[in-house]
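Most newcomers find our protein records easier to grasp once they have seen one. A learned vocabulary of local backbone shapes supplies the integers on the structure line. Here is such a record, shown just as it appears in the course material:
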Amino acid sequence: MNIIPLVLEDCKKAAHLHQNAFETGWEESSFQELLQTPLITGIKVEEEGKFLGYILWREIIDEAEILTFVVHPEHQQKGVGTYLLQNVCAWLKDKGISRIFLEVAEDNVKALAFYQKWEFTFLSKRPQYYSRKGKGYVAALNCSKELI
């Protein structure tokens, strides 16, 4: 697996993955806008020319926030997410970033288990944050992890 910067040419693939992973997936233009924004960075994992997943984050002073993190369904639970997060945490730690934040839907059981394994700490809950077709809304859970 290769870690490579997420670039503008990847926006269509990133949007496609995002739209398949989330009920309200981002458009290609959203990725283009984010990748052209200062302090926002992304990396992707490729293997044999296949786009396996990515993380996009924002850095603010000595903190970072994961904006989105997606692994292709066929490659989940095969170490791709771990590989991505290891690389992001190492990168941020080397830059002096002390804490990383993220937000996850309360009903995203796989993601919650992954973040708990990575020792992210629950901080707060945003009730009725994510819309669910025909099911109303679910809360967003705000979590963080100390890097230094």
About this structure: The first strand starts at residue 2 and ends at 5. Residues 2-146 form a domain with the Aminopeptidase fold (CATH 3.40.630.30). The mean pLDDT is 95.
